[in-house]
């Protein structure tokens, strides 16, 4: 630490001390006023030792200032918590900027444009030699001068979404697709590389991604990461074993793998481990030795000895035998893990005969029709013969992870925001040639000139591919209208595979596509679904449409005319059958899977609420202390729908035993009593909170800061770009 900063901190302490005597009571803890890492510190506790804001005065907590970046995005949000250097509040914007904000006034100090994505899920500040902000980008780690925002150094680390970790001599980064890398912080030279790449004789193209969690324990000199699904909901082409859906410990000296815990083997559900691993210790657990905590979308908590990876709770992890996959070539795991201690904080299974009884007759009919060939269970593999409904993609914990409530040292509690948002996992046969064209066209969208030329040539339409549509295909479930048009146009000119049936072209192709590929909406848009019709006669699903009467029932809500005679219907069905046989014969059928929202006809999650909540677990015995709904769902005209909604904002625990949380579609932020889970304060923000809040102390006052940029998913009202700072209206800043 520099001489000036040291004396600056002493001055801040003096101001802090005086303020506690003459202005506010009770006094804040004598804690660091900085928040140098988006997760609070490299151990990711997300805990503030400040207690000026407490249960007695929290009703005086008000918005002090708002900072608006003046940038607009229809789909992007800021998912990184800001950091506080002791001098400036540092944040990122939806447009790929890094900004410095005056912590007292909320005024802009400087802004620096970088290549997006920027600081997707975190920033780091370090002043060992000079005060620098470190931010992850799509091309590497960039360090910026604290005072000016000027670029100091660029580390060629590869794409990362997470805050880098700084030690005396090293900068270490968890890359998205290339493992963990350590660099000399001065020369930028790579020191070691822990790779997750498949190095077998027949390598696959699937490498487990690191997108959600990265932490470090300085005492043990160990890095911890959690990994996600290696790619797709069908694992036919994956190499086993792999390190997907795992908590991994890596030596800080050498990058050597020390141990790993794999939560799900051969993941077929996108049940990633999420949030940065939390590192802590207390005498009542594991004999006072360090523990590391990871959270799962299955609603389970993984608590292991940080040094050796062993469970700290006796007999807490068991295995259950699960159903094998019936998809040809898929080798699903025979067993999966079940964790009993700590207690699960959310559930996986949807009870089809119970969870829709709250719906009125119209809605219930709509939902039951949607899930007519669905099953629900624990670890049911994807199937071509039925859909799987579960609290999956947005079930359990989400990317922000949790926090530790350390306000009572002998009774440490884990606080977790969670979701019970229902989803449908669907598998269909897709035409391999169509998929190949789609993938090539999707790649060419990065080259607008070429894409525009092909689009005009094959569709006979003029086009100006807008930048806003670039990258839409980055999600496997996403649809792009112009991309679909081009793919259909190219496909229709291939004699072997194009549709030649008159009835199909006239009556069906406008919804189900030229290649019978189907259409489905994204998680942002809703639940529109025109199922793929390729290969349906090879599955059990066609049995619900093998007569004209049932076909009519399935299409009773369709607005176009489908008045088939019996002869026409038989002609159409025979065409499907022959087409399927031909595609199968030539090996042109590929199973593809995707998630889709399970919502009712009014656009709300279909299962019984709450659809999201907040839970607290006593780590001493692993028991739930409390579990409460989080957020309130209303209609656009204010009609109450449900307590407990989906949430993606994250939490902060403080020394005054207050839990701050946000991220619900109602755009409220709330404070909860750490002992009971009772709401003790709430305020509305300009947009929904989109990242875990932070707290800092500056010129005599404690601040709580939220990034409020809205939500990217269905149910959220709007997006924007605001940073909101709150403080006690009774607290007067000192000069």
**Largest sheet properties:** 5 strands, mixed
Overall geometry comes to globular
Residues in helix, %: 10-25%
Mean of pLDDT: 88
* Number of E strands: 43
Architecture per CATH nomenclature, i.e. the level-2 architecture of the largest domain: 8 Propeller
- CATH-assigned homologous superfamily of the largest domain: Quinoprotein alcohol dehydrogenase-like superfamily
Gap between N and C termini? 24 Å
Give the domain tally: 2
Beta-strand percent range:
25-35%
Strand order of the largest sheet: 1-37-38-39-40
The CATH class of the largest domain is Mainly Beta
* CA gyration radius, whole angstroms: 27 Å
Please provide a written account of the structure.
The structure is a single chain. The chain has 2 domains: 3-422 and 602-728, Quinoprotein alcohol dehydrogenase-like superfamily (Methanol Dehydrogenase, Chain A), CATH 2.140.10; 425-597, no CATH class. Helix 4 (448-459) packs across helix 5 (481-491). With 735 residues, the chain is an alpha+beta fold. A hairpin with a 4-residue loop joins strand 20 and strand 21 (301-305). Residues 1-32 and 465-478 have low confidence and may be disordered. A 5-stranded mixed beta sheet has the order 1-37-38-39-40, with no helix packed on it. Strands 26, 27, 28, 33 and 34 form a 5-stranded antiparallel beta sheet that branches.
């Amino acid at each position: 630490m520099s001489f000036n900063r040291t004396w600056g901190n002493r001055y801040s302490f003096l101001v802090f001390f005086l303020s506690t005597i003459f202005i506010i009571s009770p006094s804040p803890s004598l804690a660091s006023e900085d928040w140098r890492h988006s997760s609070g510190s490299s151990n990711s506790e997300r805990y503030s030792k400040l207690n000026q804001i407490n249960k007695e005065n929290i009703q005086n907590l008000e918005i002090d200032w708002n900072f608006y970046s003046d940038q607009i995005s229809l789909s992007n949000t800021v998912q990184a918590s800001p950091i506080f250097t002791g001098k400036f509040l540092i944040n990122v914007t939806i447009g790929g900027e890094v900004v410095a904000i005056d912590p007292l006034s909320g005024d802009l100090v400087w802004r620096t444009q970088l290549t997006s994505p920027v600081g997707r899920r975190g920033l780091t500040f370090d002043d060992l030699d000079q005060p620098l902000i470190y931010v992850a980008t799509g091309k590497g780690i960039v360090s910026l001068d604290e005072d000016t925002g000027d670029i100091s150094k660029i580390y060629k680390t590869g794409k990362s979404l997470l805050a880098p970790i700084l030690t005396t001599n090293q900068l270490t980064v968890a890359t998205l697709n290339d493992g963990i890398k350590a660099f000399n912080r001065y020369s930028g030279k790579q020191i070691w590389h822990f790779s997750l790449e498949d190095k077998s004789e027949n390598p696959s193209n699937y490498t487990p991604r690191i997108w959600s969690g990265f932490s470090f324990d300085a005492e043990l000199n160990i890095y911890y990461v959690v990994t996600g699904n290696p790619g797709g909901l069908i694992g036919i082409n994956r190499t086993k074993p792999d390190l997907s859906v795992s908590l991994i410990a890596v030596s800080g000296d050498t990058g050597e793998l020390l141990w790993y815990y794999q939560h799900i083997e051969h993941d077929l559900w996108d049940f990633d481990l999420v949030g940065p691993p939390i590192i802590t210790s207390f005498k009542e657990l594991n004999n006072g030795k360090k523990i590391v905590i990871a959270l799962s979308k299955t609603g389970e908590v993984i608590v292991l000895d940080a040094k050796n990876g062993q469970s700290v709770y006796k007999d807490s992890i068991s295995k259950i035998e699960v159903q094998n996959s019936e998809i040809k070539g898929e080798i699903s795991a025979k067993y999966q893990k079940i964790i009993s201690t700590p207690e699960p904080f959310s559930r996986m299974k949807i009870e089809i005969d119970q969870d829709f009884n709250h719906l009125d007759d119209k809605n219930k009919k709509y939902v039951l029709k949607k899930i007519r060939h669905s099953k629900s269970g624990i670890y049911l593999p994807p199937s071509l013969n039925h859909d799987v409904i579960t609290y999956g993609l947005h079930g359990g914990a989400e990317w922000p992870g949790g926090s530790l409530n350390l306000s009572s040292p002998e009774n440490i509690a884990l606080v977790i925001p969670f979701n019970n948002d229902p989803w449908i996992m669907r598998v269909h046969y897709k035409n391999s040639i169509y998929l190949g064209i789609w993938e090539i066209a999707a790649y060419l969208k990065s080259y607008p000139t070429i894409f525009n030329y092909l689009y005009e040539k094959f569709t006979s339409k003029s086009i100006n591919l807008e930048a806003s549509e670039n990258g839409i295909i980055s999600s496997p479930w996403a649809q792009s209208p112009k991309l679909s048009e081009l793919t259909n146009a190219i496909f229709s000119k291939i004699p072997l595979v194009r549709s030649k049936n008159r009835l199909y072209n006239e009556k069906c192709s406008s919804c189900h596509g030229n290649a019978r590929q189907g259409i489905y909406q994204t998680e942002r848009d809703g639940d529109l679904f025109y199922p793929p019709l390729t290969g349906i006669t090879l599955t059990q699903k066609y049995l619900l449409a093998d007569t004209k009467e049932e076909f009519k029932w399935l299409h009773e809500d369709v607005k176009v005319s489908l008045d088939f005679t019996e002869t026409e219907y038989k002609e159409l069905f025979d065409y499907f059958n022959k087409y399927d046989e031909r595609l199968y014969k030539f090996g042109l059928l590929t199973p593809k899977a995707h998630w889709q929202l399970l919502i009712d006809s009014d656009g709300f999650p279909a299962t019984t609420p709450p659809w999201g909540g907040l839970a607290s677990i006593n780590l001493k015995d692993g028991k739930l202390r409390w579990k409460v709904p989080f957020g309130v769902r209303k209609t656009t005209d204010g009609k109450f729908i449900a307590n407990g909604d989906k949430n993606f904002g994250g939490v902060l625990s403080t020394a005054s035993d207050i839990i701050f949380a946000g991220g619900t579609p109602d755009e409220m932020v709330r404070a909860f009593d750490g002992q009971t889970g009772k709401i003790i304060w709430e305020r509305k923000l300009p947009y929904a909170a989109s990242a875990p809040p932070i707290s800092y102390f500056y010129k005599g006052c404690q601040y709580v800061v939220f990034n409020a940029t809205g939500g990217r998913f269905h149910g959220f009202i709007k997006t924007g770009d605001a940073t909101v700072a709150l403080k006690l209206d009774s607290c007067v800043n000192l000069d």
